[in-house]
Structure formats: C-alpha cells, structure tokens
Amino acid sequence: MAIIGNIIKGFIDLTETVLSDPNPIEEQKEVLKELLSKAAKTTFGETYDFNEISKSDDIRKKFAQIVPYHDYNKIYDEWWNRVVDGQENVTWPGNPDYFALSSGTTGKKSKRIPVTSDMLAAIRNAGIKQVLALSNFDFPADFFEKEIMMLGSSTDLRQRDGRLEGEISGISASNIPFWFRGYYKPGEEIAQTDDWDDRVLKIAKQAKEWDIGALSGIPSWMELMLKKVIDYNGLEHIHEIWPNLQVYTSGGVAFEPYQKSFNALLGKPIQIIDTYLASEGFIAFQTRPETTAMRLVTNNGIYFEFVPFKAEYINQDGSLTDNAPSLTLDEVEKDQDYVLIISTVSGAWRYIIGDTIAFTDIEKAEIKITGRTKFFLNTVGSQLSVNKLNDAVKYLEKEMDMKIPEYTLCAKRYEDGFYHSWYLGCDSKLEEEKTANLLDNYLKQANKNYKVARSKALEGVKAHVVPVKTFTDWSGANKKKGGQVKMERVMDEERFSEWEAFVANNS
ω before 114 within 30° of 0 (cis)? Predict the structure, then answer.
C-alpha cells in the first residue's frame, strides 16, 4: 500500500478543495499595485514616477501610458547593463544573486536576465500550485511516491563578479527544496555535468536503478535522452525500464510537432502536462486534463499585458512599434493572437518576452503558445505565424505517415524570385517535390494571406529533407546542447545561409 503517496494525494486533494476559485482580473490589479509599490524607489521607478502612477484612478491605463515597451536589447542597453555591472536598485530593489543566460532559440550570444530572490520565490510558489493542481488529474496514490526526471541545463552554475549564471532550468534545479531531493533525478551529481552527451550517457547507465513516474523538460532534448536510455539498455520502448512512467511535463515550446515521434518511444500512453517556464519567470501551467491549454499564473509576481498580433504593430526584428496598443486581461478576446508583455519581480518592465499566445478560456485565463514574434514570416506578405507552420508540418506527418519533429524555413530570394525554403528533419525518405506541393497547397487553403502572396511576390515552396540529428548538431554547434535551447523555426537570409552552409558541410 502506498502510505506516503496516499498522504501526499490526500493533502493535495484537501488543499485544492479549500482553495477558492481565483479571480484573475482582480489578482492582476493587485500584482501591478505591489510591483509599483516595491519598485517605487528604484532608479526605474523614480524615472517613470511609480508613486504618481499608483495614485491614478486607473493605474493599469496610466502604467501603459507612461512606461514604454522594452525588448531585451532596449532594457539591457538602458537599464540592465548597470545591474550586470553591480549597481543596486536599478529596476528592482537590491541586486540579483543570479542571471539567467537565455539560450532560447539558438543564437551565439546569450542574454543575461536578472533572477532576483523574489523571482525564485515566485517560481517555487508556482511550482507548488502546479503540484496542487495534480488533484484534477486523478493519479493513483502510488504515483506520488515515484521519482521525477527533470532534464534541464547543468546546475554547475558559473561565478561572474560575485553572482551565479546559468540557464533558468539549472538555476531552478539548484534551488530545489530539501524535501524534494529524494524524488529528483538524475540527482545533483549528474545534474552538475556540463557536457550534455556525457550527462545523458550517465543517465542511461543508471536508468535501471530508478523508478521514474514523471518527466520534465523540452521535447527535443527529452526525446534524445529517452532514445539514449532505450538504445543503451537494449529496449523496445521506455516503459520497459520505467514501467510506472505516467506523466510528461513539457515546456518552452509547443508539444504538437513532437507528439508523433515522442509517442513512438512509449509503451503506453501517458499524460502530457504543458508548462510555460521562461527565463523571465514561471508564466503558466496546465491545470486540468480536459484541455492542453495553460492557466496564467496571475497572482505571483508577474503582471501581463497583451498586444494584438498584427503586422502593423510588429517590427522586422520582432519588437513592437511605439503605437502598438496593449490590452489588459479583461479586454482580450478568445482565439486571437497576442504578443505577450510582462512586468515582473525581477525588474522587467513592459517586457516583450517574444512569444505570442491566444486565449482558449478567458474566465479561467487559459492560454496556448502560438508562436514567436521573430518567427512571424511576413517577408512577402504571407503573414504566417508558428502555429500555422506547425499545423502544416502536422498535416505533412498525417498525409505521408512520417515523423517530422524538427523544421526550419526562410523566405529566400532565388534568381526567379522569393520562395519559402523549408528544411524538414525526418529520418525516413521523403520525395521533396511532393512534399513542397503538399506544404504549398495546405498553406494556400489554411491562410488567405499566404494565398494572396502566392499570386504576387511568392513563387512557391522548396523542400529539403535532412536527418533529425542535423538539427541537434546545429544547436550544439551554436550553443550548448540541452536545457532551454530551442530551434529557430524561421530564419532571416543571413542566418539561413549559415544554416545551409552547416548542412552542406555535415551531410
């Protein structure tokens, strides 16, 4: 009998029962008040007169009028560079102990994002809320006695001028509470292994000693780890070594493109729970099994705003125009794409996180990630967001009965005009001309702007098929493998030329 599991499950069920239903709109009003109050005496707060904003009849409207949007480059050049240099009370009281090195989509230069003690507390609180929400999934009591494999970046953080630096998954894992360490795998020693391939090999060697009930990590790197465990131990599927695996907590990117290839590694279906943990904070998580949408964490140190995702508001580099309107939680509409804007207890102010989202349930503040502002493909008027590109790849998988977990593309100029040049990661043979026609026809039917573009400046689609390993090798060549590193779905022509040269040299 799972005595400890029954105790934990009973506590979770009881806690969820006594908690009242949240009011996200009112929670957000309180969060903004608290942020303005706590940061009023910082240099940023004094520059934009947070005290005066707090006296306004409508502080949300006044806040949006006074404080400008910031992408990373703007807030770093104007503010965070001082934080990195050691100045105190710049955008948040005191000085952070950590900086999250944001790999995000693969690039050669990491961003340094402050992680304050308030943010670490907020991340822990959101994690507890997510655990409490497991009562909605009706897992058996013995599930709560199983171990959890958290596949993030290395917890061997680097010292820099008295502060520690690393990816947010490594920072979070290095701050796990003592009572959780018995459940946490791969354990502190392996988690500190900096080299990704070495770390995964160690996991594969020890896998048979663990009783894993849940997995957590980015899909592309989780797949590679599972494949390594399967191959090293001579298995057909992962449930042969971890028979009690019941949950995978995905995060950082949409899971759908990986669904087919991920499921092929399993011996039986498991519950997928989506989580939205970014370098800037714990933003949302899935709270119930009947939807894959995630509930915004509206009472935990992050204030949200939403800009309609329209071409006239988006600059070529993914930043926003100065006149882009922002909406509050009580002004948004269902099934519309928005650029997500956050203000946080780490001193990010009206910060463009780079993701686009859509609401699936406004009353519950539930969202889905629909793409990236920088991955908005609009070079020749096609206006394709990542969710439309993901849908096209999912259609391909179904039509051709193939697994295509990775892709990237560019609106590239050839001698006869612009084409959407796709590279698809697939370990099976695909007929490239047929693949290009399928993509082209699907997008013409699914997106009116694409159809119009095809009648004007866009000549068509070119498709190239490369092994899935090419994408992970590219990530490894540009950044460290694993952790928060994600593949660019859309590239500009300069970046794409680097990609094509890499593919040519590694084919």
Answer: no
